[in-house]
Each structure stands twice: as C-alpha cells, then as structure tokens.
C-alpha cells in the first residue's frame, strides 16, 4: 500500500469507503448516496467519473470500488474488476456455486472461458505482475472451490 | 411529559427530512426502552445493540409499502445503516467480507491504521484496538445473518456487536447538497447555487438549484461545454442540450444570446430540476423547452414519430451532448439528426482515452473535428457535413 501512504502524508484522510456498484449505473441513490453523502462528497462527480471509467465493462456488472475520502471533501477512488467467482458464475450460467465442492459439480466452463476471465483480470491493479498462465491457474483454483468443472471443450 | 412529546415528534418525523446526527440521539435509548412506544415508525429507530432484525424488518416493509419505490423515487428508497465494532487486526478482511455477503457499502472512518476517530459519536467507549465500520444495507437484506457470515469468513471468533440506525431518508441528501458553492467557470461566468449569493453581481450568473441531476458546474465536462458554448453562441441560435440534466447548458446558451434552447433527458427528476432552474433564471417556456424522452434507443429522427412531435430534425445550430461514452456511440444517429448541416455538434462526458472511439463513430457525420481536454476529460466538437460520408 505504498501509494496509500503517499496520499496519507499529503492530505488527511477522513474515511475509506468500499462499495459495490453496477458498472455504468452509479446514481446518487442508496447505496451510493448515503455512503458517500455522509462525508459530504460530491455525489454527481463520483457518479459521472465512475460511470465514465466503467463504460468498457458490460452494463450492470457489479464492480467493487474503494473510495478514499479526504477531510477537505475531495476524494480518490480505484475500481476493481468484478470478482472471479462472479465471472465464473456467469460463464457457467448458474446463480450460486455448488453446495459440495469437490463432490458435486454445479456446472462447467471451458478453457476458453478461463482464458477470457484471466485476460480481464490482468488489467486489475493487483494482478498486473502475474503472468497470464498463473492468473489462469488461480481462476481454475477458484472454480474448483466453487464446484465448477473446467473442461477442454463443451461436449 | 415534554420528553414523550419529543419522542412523538421524533418518530413522526423519522420518515421526513430530519437532520439525524448520532451524538444527540444516543442519549435517548434509555427513554426509548422504558416508555413502550407503539408508533408504527418507531421501531425503526433501533438504538440498542444486538437488535432483533426480524421485528425491525417487518416494520421496514410496512413503511416502504407506504412509499412505493418507483423508478422516480429512488431517492427515497429506505436503507439501513449499521455501525459495527470490529477488532482492528481483522477490519480490512471483515469489511470486504461484508460486501460479499450482502452489504451495499462499508466505510471506515479515518485511515484505520492510526488514530481513533470520533466516528462512534457519543458512545465513546471504544477500545483502542477496535475499529468502527459503517455499513449500508438495502432494506431487504438480513443484517444479522450477513454480519455473522462475514465474521466467519474474516476469521473472527465472535460476532462483532453492532448498532442499527434508521436510514433517515433525506439526511444524506441534505449533507451532500450542502457542499455546493459558487463556481467560476471562466472570467465573467459564475454558477451559483440557489441559496447562496453570487460573488460578482455583474458577471453572467447562472443560478441552479442543487439536486440530483448532473450539471452543477464543478465538473470539468460541464466547464468544457460551457467554454465551448461561450465561444460558439453569437446570438439568435437554436440550441439543443441532449441529456440536459440540471439544464445548466441550455440556460447558459440562452444567457449567451441563443434564441431558443431545447433540452431533453431520460430522467424525470432531471427535467423537473431543469424546469425549476429555468424559472430561477427567468427563462420562460417560450425560450426554454424541455422534454422527457424514453430511455430506449430512438428508432429514427424524432420528426418521424407518430406521437406529438417535440422537435423536428435539422433545426438546431448548436447541439451539445454531455453524457457518457456508450450512449454517445449508440445514439450518434439521433444526436446528429437534430443539427442543421454546418451546425456545430459538441460531445463530452468522455475521458481523454475514449476520444478515438468517438472519432471513429462520428467522423462520417462531421468535419473539422477539434478536441479540448481538461483534467483527463475531453470535449470533442465538429461541424456537421451536408451529406454523411458513408
């Protein structure tokens, strides 16, 4: 969190807010509204900024965003791509993971799905240093914990 | 006697705009518990910790039935604000786990790693190794179950104690609206919120009511569009604000000398706000015309719709659209159709990196494209060709 320390020495932080907002769908309504409003942040500016930056994602994908609010009512935020579990559920076409992962397979995804998911994840700030292959391996690992099989091709 | 009156007043107003600050209200819990209230809204003010959410949920649903959450009422959707105390060593993973299990947001006062903020209000009994997390849940979530699951996922041995506060509906609205101040866009052009006084009486002042439609004047895209208009409008033009929001651009065009301004938007609240702002700036309906349009992609130029024709195609000298990249790409045909050949079309609400996409999409429609950037945002404009380059 080196950059966070830089920010801290620059301006005093009032709060750190974590939110889940659908891409391109930020509105000054609950849940965004109350969470940001209580720190007197400019809601419309955040909504516009967030919506503009998430235009490249499919609409209504739930993005996790972390906002750092400073005491002078300014703020900065970083947007993370949706979680791997969410992508896997969408790719497999199911609502929730298997109740007994390892024993009961809820659904399956192909290697191509895994590759696509890994490519999206690569643009995430926390995964940039990892090779595509290792991101794929971690996606497969997540799929295993959810009870989703990974197959070469759809039968 | 006076105390119970105060409580009655408090509960009746809970559903209205009541300034709700935790510190002054916390001394009340002892009164609340002993006086056995049976006002319908009262149970929403649950101040004791370890609240039984099932009973509170029942009254939430009755309260919300009274005010159905239609698409235009999203401002008044009820929500629950929960204050959770969590051991310092686990607060990061706990707040992330909360989001996974149903919370809409979780915020931590202060930087969490340093000093203790007063975030807990009048409670004042936090241990130094505890952090307060404020979480917002949309009303249909089961708060207790979510916190329990999140605690489990974060590896906490015991479920943290928490307090459920009523989501005073308008409180956060008022707090965010209070932060608007007069903004100087450029020399001689100010945007002033309704209740504040303009710093410079002689300058062109646009008075706006703060609200939840976009366009308060502080955002770089609004400023870029206003600067573009200032350079373009010489007098007597017909102007279209596509996606008008608060109406700021339409009003500015009229102040600069345009003959008539049209404003369209898909959001009903925006149109209402724009009407209000037009009145504030003494712009009558003959000069400023506003219309609410459906959010679906327009089939073809509005002039060919069978219902009442608001505007005909190819009537405007200046068209400005300050929305977002994807709508700009999808609605390109529609936006361009309103401009006369040779008219100027201005687009904003796009990041600098998104400009090439706009260029690709619009180059068939216009020529002499120019791009102005401010703070990472861009405004792209061009003059409409007489015939599109196909």
From TrEMBL, chain A:
<feature type="domain" description="Large ribosomal subunit protein uL11 N-terminal">
    <location>
        <begin position="17"/>
        <end position="75"/>
    </location>
</feature>
<keyword id="KW-0687">Ribonucleoprotein</keyword>
<dbReference type="InterPro" id="IPR020783">
    <property type="entry name" value="Ribosomal_uL11_C"/>
</dbReference>
<dbReference type="Pfam" id="PF03946">
    <property type="entry name" value="Ribosomal_L11_N"/>
</dbReference>
<comment type="similarity">
    <text>Belongs to the universal ribosomal protein uL11 family.</text>
</comment>
<protein>
    <recommendedName>
        <fullName>Large ribosomal subunit protein uL11m</fullName>
    </recommendedName>
</protein>
<feature type="domain" description="Large ribosomal subunit protein uL11 C-terminal">
    <location>
        <begin position="80"/>
        <end position="150"/>
    </location>
</feature>
<dbReference type="InterPro" id="IPR006519">
    <property type="entry name" value="Ribosomal_uL11_bac-typ"/>
</dbReference>
<dbReference type="GO" id="GO:0006412">
    <property type="term" value="P:translation"/>
</dbReference>
<dbReference type="InterPro" id="IPR020784">
    <property type="entry name" value="Ribosomal_uL11_N"/>
</dbReference>
<dbReference type="InterPro" id="IPR000911">
    <property type="entry name" value="Ribosomal_uL11"/>
</dbReference>
<dbReference type="InterPro" id="IPR036796">
    <property type="entry name" value="Ribosomal_uL11_N_sf"/>
</dbReference>
<dbReference type="InterPro" id="IPR036769">
    <property type="entry name" value="Ribosomal_uL11_C_sf"/>
</dbReference>
<dbReference type="GO" id="GO:0070180">
    <property type="term" value="F:large ribosomal subunit rRNA binding"/>
</dbReference>
<dbReference type="GO" id="GO:0003735">
    <property type="term" value="F:structural constituent of ribosome"/>
</dbReference>
<keyword id="KW-0689">Ribosomal protein</keyword>
<dbReference type="GO" id="GO:0015934">
    <property type="term" value="C:large ribosomal subunit"/>
</dbReference>
<dbReference type="Pfam" id="PF00298">
    <property type="entry name" value="Ribosomal_L11"/>
</dbReference>
UniProtKB/TrEMBL annotation, chain B:
<keyword id="KW-0489">Methyltransferase</keyword>
<keyword id="KW-0963">Cytoplasm</keyword>
<dbReference type="InterPro" id="IPR029063">
    <property type="entry name" value="SAM-dependent_MTases_sf"/>
</dbReference>
<dbReference type="GO" id="GO:0032259">
    <property type="term" value="P:methylation"/>
</dbReference>
<dbReference type="InterPro" id="IPR004498">
    <property type="entry name" value="Ribosomal_PrmA_MeTrfase"/>
</dbReference>
<comment type="similarity">
    <text>Belongs to the methyltransferase superfamily. ETFBKMT family.</text>
</comment>
<comment type="similarity">
    <text>Belongs to the methyltransferase superfamily. PrmA family.</text>
</comment>
<dbReference type="Pfam" id="PF06325">
    <property type="entry name" value="PrmA"/>
</dbReference>
<keyword id="KW-0949">S-adenosyl-L-methionine</keyword>
<dbReference type="GO" id="GO:0016279">
    <property type="term" value="F:protein-lysine N-methyltransferase activity"/>
</dbReference>
<dbReference type="GO" id="GO:0005739">
    <property type="term" value="C:mitochondrion"/>
</dbReference>
<protein>
    <recommendedName>
        <fullName>ETFB lysine methyltransferase</fullName>
    </recommendedName>
</protein>
<dbReference type="InterPro" id="IPR050078">
    <property type="entry name" value="Ribosomal_L11_MeTrfase_PrmA"/>
</dbReference>
<keyword id="KW-0808">Transferase</keyword>
């Amino acid at each position: 969190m080196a950059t966070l320390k830089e920010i801290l020495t620059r301006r005093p932080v009032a709060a750190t807010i974590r939110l889940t907002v659908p891409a391109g769908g930020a509105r000054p309504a609950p849940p965004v509204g109350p969470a940001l409003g209580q720190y007197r942040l400019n809601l419309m500016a955040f909504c516009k900024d967030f919506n503009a930056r998430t235009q490249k994602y499919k609409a209504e994908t739930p993005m996790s965003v972390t906002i750092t609010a400073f005491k002078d009512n300014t703020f900065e935020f970083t947007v993370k791509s949706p979680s791997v579990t969410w992508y896997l559920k969408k790719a497999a076409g199911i609502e929730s993971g298997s109740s007994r992962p390892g024993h009961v397979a809820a659904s399956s995804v192909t290697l191509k799905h895994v590759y696509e998911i890994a490519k999206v994840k690569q643009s995430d700030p926390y995964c940039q240093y990892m090779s595509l292959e290792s991101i794929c391996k971690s996606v497969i690992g997540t799929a295993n914990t959810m009870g989703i099989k990974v197959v070469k091709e759809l039968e | 006697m006076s105390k119970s009156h105060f409580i009655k007043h408090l509960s009746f107003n809970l559903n209205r705009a009541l300034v709700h600050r935790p510190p002054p209200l916390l001394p009340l819990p002892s009164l609340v518990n002993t006086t056995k209230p049976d006002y319908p809204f009262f149970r929403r003010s649950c101040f004791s910790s370890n609240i039984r959410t099932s009973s509170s949920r029942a009254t939430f649903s009755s309260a919300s039935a009274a005010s159905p959450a239609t698409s235009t009422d999203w401002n008044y959707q009820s929500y629950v604000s929960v204050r959770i105390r969590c051991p310092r060593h686990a607060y990061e993973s706990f707040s992330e786990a909360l989001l996974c299990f149903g919370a809409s947001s979780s915020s931590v006062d202060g930087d969490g790693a340093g000093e203790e903020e007063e975030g807990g209000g009048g409670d004042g009994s936090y241990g130094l190794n505890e952090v307060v997390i404020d979480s917002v849940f949309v009303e249909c979530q089961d708060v207790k179950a979510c916190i329990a699951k999140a605690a489990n996922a974060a590896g906490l041995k015991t479920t943290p104690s928490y307090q459920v506060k009523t989501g005073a509906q308008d409180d956060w609205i008022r707090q965010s609206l209070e932060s608007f101040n007069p903004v100087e866009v450029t020399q001689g052009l100010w945007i002033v919120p309704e209740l504040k006084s303009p710093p410079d009486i002689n300058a062109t002042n646009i008075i706006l009511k703060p609200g939840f439609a976009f366009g308060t004047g502080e955002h770089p895209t609004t400023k870029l569009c206003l600067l573009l208009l200032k350079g373009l409008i010489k007098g007597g033009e017909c102007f279209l604000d596509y996606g008008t929001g608060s109406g700021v651009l339409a009003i500015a065009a009229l102040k600069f000398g345009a003959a008539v301004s049209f404003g369209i938007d898909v959001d009903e609240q925006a149109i209402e706000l724009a009407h209000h702002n037009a009145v504030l700036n003494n712009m009558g309906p003959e000069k400023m015309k506003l219309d609410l349009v459906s959010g679906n992609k327009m089939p073809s130029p509005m002039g060919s719709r069978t219902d009442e024709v608001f505007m005909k195609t190819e009537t405007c000298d200046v068209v400005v659209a300050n929305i977002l990249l994807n709508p700009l790409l999808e609605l390109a045909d529609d936006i361009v159709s309103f401009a006369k050949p040779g008219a100027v079309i201005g687009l904003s609400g796009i990041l600098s990196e998104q400009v090439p996409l706009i260029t690709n999409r619009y180059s068939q429609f216009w020529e002499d494209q120019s791009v102005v950037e401010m703070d990472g945002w861009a405004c792209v404009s061009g003059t409409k060709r007489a015939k599109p380059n196909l």
